[in-house]
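Predict the 3D structure for this chain.
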Amino acid sequence: MEYRQLRPIYDALEGSDPQRALKECDKLLRKHPNHPSARAIKAYVLTQTGRTEEALALSLSVLETPTAMASAHAQQGLTLAFRALGRPHEEIMVYTAALAHTPNDETLHCKVFKAAARNRMFKEQHQAAVQLNKLFDNPKYIWWLVVSLLLQARDSPKNAAAQVQLKLAERLVEKAVADGNLKSVEELRVYLDVLDVQDKREQMVEVMDVNGQLAALIANDPDLVTQRIELLIKTQAYGKAVEAAIAALKARDNWADYKLYIEAVIASVDPAAAGASVSTICAHLEAWAADRDRARSAKLAQVALATRMFESGFGDAAGLPELLIWGFIDQFQEKAICYTDIMQFIIAHHKAAGKYDAQAAVIDYHWAQLEKRMPAARESAGQSDGEAQAWVNLEKVRYLMQALRGETDPSVWLADIEVLLNFGLTSKPARKKQPACSDMTLLACQRIIQAAFLAHGATSARAQLHSALFKALCVLESGIRLNEGNFMLKLYAIRLYLYLSCYERARAIYDSLSIKHVQQETLGHMILGHGMMLGCFAADMELCYDGVAFYDRFRSKMPRDIESVYDQETYSNIQDFIEFQRNLDCSVQHECTHRYALRGEGFEYGSAKEMVARWEEADTRSIEHTEESLGALHDNRDISVMGLLTPKELAQWDLELLTRPVPMPGHEWIQAFSLVPQIMHHMVCAEIELLQIKSSELAAIVDKHDNALPRSDLILIRGIIDMVALYIQATDQQHAVDVQLDKLVEDVFEDYFEDTWSDLNKKDLLK
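Done. Predicted structure below.
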């Protein structure tokens, strides 16, 4: 009967027509004014039409009706309403009220637990888990309780109750092990997390013993095998760590295990017999390198070992790093990943050589090896994809060598540039769209950019710099025409177009990248906000709204992911999901996106009356920041995505830094554009005292951090500061005039009516 009554409403909702659903609700409520399910569903429908205040009032009214929650339809409608309104406590109250009618309903108890879990209400989650364990005999609920205790302790580590919660969680797990209820890798990870939070590493080692009760679970999971090696190193059981690493590497090729093997060996090296100490690992690596399927990892591990030994002062006990570096390049130079693999060790070797005043000698050696190989590589580049990639990798090494030796002559950076461009753009391999040709085109472009900044980096030479960067853009556009799917060419083109104030083409290329989902968080900084600086407000506001929509979608999706973790019993994902959610909720890019949108809306074109009305209605309390809240922001923006060929510490050769059109927005920018809306609101509301405080804070940021703010933003901020000063001055003058007028009027009345009116009448008249 009830479902038939509600069917028209459900049909409208399924058809994504909230207005029709609202009409159907009202139609039913005219016949049955106190219909609890219709009222509950109407509350939800009101949230979908933007009438949130009405929705909240109606939702609370239904919740206060004792018998309403006996209906499953009312429960569903009301929980959806409170969820849409962001009221998790009231959502849980709905389930609690429903349990008063069916106290042993397992599904309802699970809903209470999941509602608390979705909203990171760890105390309520713990209480719900306790109830589930009391009422229902299901081993899964033991782990829900353990996880709840763990999350609660992690959320408030300084709370005295945290240690009690962890102890209880540990005892519950120990009982589960004794009862045979620890059966999965996910449950074992929870056990290890409980011990890890308490810093019980020795006990963790015991749990992960290869001969222990849980050994089979560990052996079949590579991550747990790696974690065990890490633990052995942390507990300084280096001998056992070496044994565990050897056993792991015999079973599978895992780069993380190679690194731990090297770390354990170096930690246990006998300085008096360094060569003998590493003889076993050298023999193992040599044997594994002979296996074609694992040769790359093993050879790279040989390079890593030799470099670490050299850094640690053991010389060439594990071989000469430079010989092993070039041995690796010779063997794997036809792979695109070769340079990425070896770059870190070339840099580390060069840096370590500084301890012995041997950096110049290291550069000379690498340069000699490079010159010996380069002619043959160029000659054979057209023969196959592999040969072409080999030349590209050598050219990348040449680029790195020039940066490491501090080359500042632009002509050296442009040497052989025509050869690189011809191969990248006009050669036969280029016409076949070989990936190596796009890499070479990008490399040529990077050289042009580097030479341009070295030759014309001074402010007085801006015209020449822009001309040179325009040439680089021509190269990039040619490369993009040959390979429209090349991500790196497009990123560099976006950066240079923005540097040259060409927003429309930069935006068109950015749109072609199809940036989606979390990439808006990591890559959105490449273009967001630049349109406003160049006068393209509407286009930039579109990006702002896309970004805001992404964060809203994520905020609604992540709680569902957290809920699914408990259904699927993949407990190891919970902390990652929670941390990821926190990182996005409190990220630098999230704050920047919001501030750009707020700035665009606040200063968009319109009448002065409309603008004043917008600032008067603005809720600025939610955007206030303190030093503590700014310090808690996470910076997830990816600046390494530009595929740099040099280490970050070489700022003069850091193309990502050199080609930034404006300083990247940071804490100072966020604080400044959190204050601007507050100042505008206080000004239109005539809140003088608050206006003076906020204006002084903004002025202090500008005085102290003007280099951290884009020039166009500085102009806007300084204009607002000047406007505030003028407004306060005018207000003070007006107040002084008002005081004088009041005094004059009072004197006139005093003199004029002194003999005519009584004191009482005089006071009334003055009023």
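Residues 520 and 546 are 9 Å apart (CA to CA).
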